[in-house]
Design goal:
binds zinc ion, four-stranded mixed β-sheet, 129 residues, single chain
């Protein structure tokens, strides 16, 4: 896991505030979520990804993206890990192979995991402490 997705690290600044705010709003224990960066995955893919309880980030990951990825974490808690991953892979297939804009909430509402998470991240407002 460390080689693939990188070492865990502690969020700070706005990203930490965002994660704490989402955890409070959505009522889950943030200490169960591991944030990672620096793994092999990032050599091939610049997108953030949520894999089980790990959220893989980049150096430029911002608060809205943290909210987006934590929405995926919540989806995986609600659906179960296997269902969540299967849907995620299916959606990436729709997007990559068939050209379906699965991130487009205005088109699909919460139909897709990505459209739901994108809406959540886009509308996330960080309240400063
Ligand atoms: Zn996503």
């Amino acid at each position: 896991m460390i080689g693939t997705f990188g070492a865990t690290y502690k969020l700070d600044g706005d990203n930490l505030n965002a994660a704490e705010q989402v955890a409070k709003n959505e009522n889950f224990d943030l200490s169960n979520v591991k944030f990672r960066k620096g793994g092999i995955y990032q050599l091939f893919n610049k997108r953030e990804v949520t894999w089980n309880s790990s959220i893989v980030t980049n150096n430029d990951t911002n608060a809205k993206t943290i909210a987006h990825e934590l929405k995926h974490y919540i989806q995986s808690l609600n659906q179960g890990w296997a269902n969540f991953q299967a849907r995620g892979i299916y959606e990436q297939f729709l997007k990559s192979i068939l050209g379906v804009p699965v991130y487009d909430w205005t088109k699909y509402g919460n139909k897709y995991q990505e459209s739901e998470a994108q809406y959540y991240g886009d509308h996330f407002i960080l309240t400063t402490k």
